[in-house]
Amino acid sequence: MQYSILKRLLESPKGATLLWIYLSAGVGVFSLTGVAHILYLYLCILFILLGSIMDYKNFYPIKRLFLNLLGITITIYFASQLSLENVVEPLSNLLITLIGIKFLEEKKPRDMYQILILSLLSLSLATLYNLSISFLILLMLFSLLGITSLVFINAYKQNQKNYQPLEIFGYYSAASVFLFLAVPLLSVPFFVFLPRTQFPLFDVFGRKDGLKTGIAGEVSLGKVGEIQQDNTVAFRVFGLPKNIREPYWRVQVFDTYENNKWISTLKESFSPLKGMGEVSYTIVLEPHYEDYLPLLDFPYSISSLEGVKGQVFVGPGGTFKVSTNVNKAIRYIASSVSEPVSSYETLASAYIYVPKQIPESIKKLARGLTSGAVDEGEKVKRVVKHFAEGGYSYTLRLEKYEGDPLEYFLFVSKKGNCEYYASATALLLRLMGIPARVVGGFKGALWNDYGKYHVVTNSMAHVWVEAYLKGRWVRIDTTPSYQSPAVKRISNFSLLKDAIVSFWYTNVIGFSVEKQISVFKAFGKGAKWSVKRENLMLIFKYILLVLLLTTPFYLIFLYYTRFRKTPENLYKRLTQVLGSKEEPERLLEKFKSKSFYHHLEYIVRLYQRHRYSNYKVYTDEIKRGYRALEEIKKSPQ
User: Fold this and answer.
1) Please, are residues 119 and 99 in contact by the beta-carbon 8 Å criterion?
2) Do residues 149 and 117 lie in contact, with contact meaning Cβ atoms separated by under 8 Å?
């Protein structure tokens, strides 16, 4: 029963066309899931379901005039909600509502075109929020369905009432698939050579609120623990060896502790050094809506920056920044060295301040650790030993406390995450007279064997301390060794998906103007190379070789398309023999009085049956047709 209904639907020109229209509209509506309000999404789905019932029964009780007035009213209503701060959601609600209203009408070809346009606009609007691989799949699916819909609409306009066999449905669908496959191939030159800009077209609608990330302008006690439970990718690193051990990624340096958080008050900036450091690598940074650029400790230089228009500068402590917020994925080539770069430093005295409200118990602990120490190096060793042997442990589940959080951590719970260890360590060192600062960033990296690069996630967010000893800054990390449970949950399948995403961003979305220029340069060098006589001869030899290799395949193709015994080739040979290219019926009419007419009629009817019916033409019938053609050749014309 269900098969017969489907068969009847596909054999109807309108039914076969509406099938593709419904599928195309479904992709457009689905693309706005999570963007449009759920109420209007359900309303659109309800209207589409009602429209399908109306189409099946061919009964449309709602007047078109009323639906047009409703569409105009809805448009005015959502237009009144538009503002620079709120553009996407009202437009999304408007588009899916208009799609739903269109499905309540009797669908003439112009209505079908309008539904396709509204669906395409919905998919285009979704690009403001989604440029992932899942969206690529939606885009490809809509391209296939949209092209197929256009083919069927145009066929339906020419033949709105006549019965069509299922074979015709298959022919149209196959032609649509061919067009769908041809479009990406033809679009490659446009993708490579059309001019592009560094700025996204719809940046005015971009998010300004930022993300939960390890890249932030301050470190509050307890906040890093929240971030360490988030496996969102922060950035990807290319060009470093697989076996790199516990890399530290510098993002920000904090100099002042107040109100249980570390902030940066130093405003000095330095020009980046030229050239490359000891190790070079490439970072693809996800948008974090701040101006920081993570680099491997200790950063030296950035030689290339793609995807954002801005100037790179260096802040105190060797932190690299860009003069605009990073609101989309960017790519930069950087280098690092084994020790901090002195030209990026301010006076060590800027990192000695201790707030007056520090509890007396913490000051007493610092005096105890200082007692009898022969030099600053000994003081630092005592601080490290205190945390290593004092019964401290790492935890993300912080206890409720009364009073000062660091005092509670040092003397009561002895449990905390990295910002507690770093904060306590930095303050103890400062109380001992040693300049110390807190550095925020990431620690660790996960090797992706599918894409051959390292992944750094928000769950790797970390803070540590640097102490100024003997004229240079030394990393001091008293946090116990610990790996976030979130990192342990990263599966091989997740790494495979990330490798695909990385390829998509790098080679499609990240095909920047710099890469485009490099293509032009490579093309220009190739053109200059080919002008030389010896190179022209080499090119000619390669062309000749290609021709020799491809000729057999061409001959095989030629045989199957022109010389193979088929009804089409039989009819072509017939018209050549008769020297007449009329349509089959006119051909019969023209040679009706000839003695070979019965042979001619047999070939024409054989061709018509093959071309316009569902009945199969058998091999022996084709052979008989070729024998009839030989008889026609022998007959007087």
Assistant:
1) yes
2) no
Query: 472-476 and 461-469 as β-strands: parallel, antiparallel, unpaired?
Result: antiparallel
**CA distance linking residue 236 with residue 448, whole number of Å:** 10
Task: Tell me the two tokens of residue 467.
Answer: 């102490």
Mean pLDDT, contiguous 10-residue spans, the chain (637 residues): 53 77 90 86 92 87 89 89 75 91 90 89 76 71 82 73 56 65 56 44 35 61 62 89 91 91 89 91 88 93 87 92 87 92 89 92 93 90 93 83 86 89 94 94 91 90 93 93 76 80 65 53 54 64 77 74 79 86 84 87 88 80 90 82
**pTM of the prediction?**
0.57
Residue 240 backbone phi and psi in degrees, to 5: -95, 150
Q: How far apart are CA 535 and CA 613, in angstroms?
A: 56
Cα–Cα distance for residue pair 223/202, rounded to 1 Å = 32
The pair of structure tokens assigned to 257 is 């502790």
* DSSP, res 345: -
Give Cβ neighbours of residue 14 (< 8 Å, ≥ 6 apart). Answer: 107, 156, 160
End-to-end CA distance of the chain: 55
Could you tell me which residues come within 8 angstroms of residue 600 by beta carbon, excluding any fewer than 6 positions away?
Answer: 574, 578, 587, 588, 591, 594, 628, 632
Alpha helix stretches (DSSP H) within 390-512: 405-408, 418-431, 485-488, 492-504
